[in-house]
Design brief:
By secondary structure, this protein is α/β, with parallel strands linked by helices. It has helices at residues 3-11, 23-35, 46-54, 73-82, 100-108, 121-175, 182-199, 211-220, 233-236, 244-251, 253-266, 273-284, 305-320, 331-340, 348-356, 358-367; strands at residues 15-19, 39-43, 61-65, 91-95, 113-116. It has two domains: 3-139, Response regulator (Rossmann fold); 159-367, Hypothetical protein af1432 (Orthogonal Bundle). β3 (61-65), α4 (73-82) and β4 form a beta-alpha-beta unit. It is elongated.
Length: 372
């Protein structure tokens, strides 16, 4: 079967809606189209046409008389185009009007074609077939685009899952040497996302905290302590207080993590936003608003926003969690400590957002409790 035959077969039996207020015209047109193998539905008014067009199955094509009482063809077409169910049905105008201005007006209203009365059977059949084939091609292309979009969406979701798993795997690798648990990762990730969402419309942060940034921020959060893989077990897992020398070694984990992520960035051709944020978080989440943090002694807004958010999230979780060197603090004690560090350790506005939504942060902590 050649392409021409396949096309003819594809449109054979298509449902057509013919609209005319003159019964004789409906009979002539209906007999012609029936004889050509089409299914035909007839309407003798604009209102009936709108009702039939919206019914399932929808017609594949509408042949619409322009000059009708009560509601003319232009108004029928306008309402067809305003209904999502009939928006894409092609319409051929049938009219005794034969001047160029009337034809132009028909196309301006969205008509697919224009046939002058009295109708010529061969012209009608040729125009009908042409419009049905065009619709068939358009529908096929739409289906192909929908399938392509679905496949792209599926692959993007798959890539995001792979990315999430890879990040979690790296974070869990660090945990194998760190007494903190996997729930610390889930909790701090939740805190950071919630903090960012609460500050999304704040005048200081709105330009940065869009949906893409927040998503990347949450994805990168689990890597904040990846540098701890480079800290000796004797220091990392020491149950007591660290000596001055041991503390200096412990502090190097921030730069170690940042350097590792930076090296990973050099291995790819194009920058990845979440890796850039992961590098910021890893290096600077122990910086302080007052400049007394490490490793670089940054202060105020010189500290990237990602790291300022992570700093508060990390301290909150450290305070409420049991460690080998300390017991867990109560939520009330923890809230008081963080409030006291407003403008000292933490960005004041970030602190305010945390305190205002404290119950929500406590709920995240309860949901991801250690050992559950």
């Amino acid at each position: 079967m050649n392409a021409t035959t396949q096309s003819a077969e594809a449109v054979k039996g298509a449902l057509l809606l013919i609209v005319d207020d003159v019964p004789a015209n409906l009979n002539v047109l209906g007999d012609l189209l029936h004889g050509a193998g089409y299914q035909v539905r007839a309407a003798n008014s604009g209102r009936a046409a709108l009702r039939y067009a919206a019914q399932d199955p929808h017609p594949s094509l509408i042949l619409l008389d322009v000059m009708m009482p009560e509601m003319d063809g232009y108004e029928v077409l306008r309402q067809l185009r305003g209904n999502p169910a009939t928006l894409d049905i092609p319409v051929i105008f049938l009219t005794a009007l034969d001047n160029a201005r009337d034809e132009e007006r028909g196309f301006q209203h969205g008509a697919a074609d224009y046939i002058a009365k009295p109708i010529k059977p061969d012209v009608v059949l040729a125009r009908v077939k042409s419009q049905l084939l065009a619709k068939l091609a358009k529908d096929w292309l739409s289906d192909q685009n929908a399938a392509l979009e679905a496949e792209v969406s599926r692959r993007m979701e798959e890539n995001e899952r792979i990315q999430t798993v890879s990040v979690r795997a790296l974070a869990h690798l660090a945990e194998t040497r760190d007494p903190e648990t996997g729930f610390h990762i889930l909790r701090t990730q939740g805190y950071v996302r919630l903090l960012a969402e609460k500050l999304q419309h704040h005048s200081r942060f709105a330009a940065t905290l869009d949906a893409t940034y927040i998503k990347s921020l949450a994805q990168s959060a689990p890597l904040h302590d990846i540098g701890k893989v480079g800290i000796p077990d004797a220091i990392l897992q020491k149950p007591g207080k660290l000596t001055g020398q041991e503390w200096e070694i412990m502090k190097t984990h921030a730069k170690l993590g940042s350097d590792a992520i930076e090296q990973a960035e050099k291995d790819i051709d194009q920058p990845v936003e979440f890796l850039a944020l992961a590098k910021e978080i890893a290096r600077w989440h122990h910086e302080r608003w007052d400049g007394k943090g490490y490793p670089d002694g940054l202060s105020g807004e010189a500290i990237p926003l990602s790291a300022r958010l992570m700093a508060l999230a990390d301290v909150f979780d450290a305070l409420i969690s049991k460690r080998v060197y300390k017991e867990a603090m109560s939520l009330e004690e923890t809230r008081a400590i963080i409030a006291a560090e407003r403008g000292h350790q933490f960005d004041p506005d970030v602190t305010d957002a945390f305190l205002a939504g404290f119950a929500e942060f406590a709920a995240i902590a309860a949901y991801h409790r250690d050992g559950e």
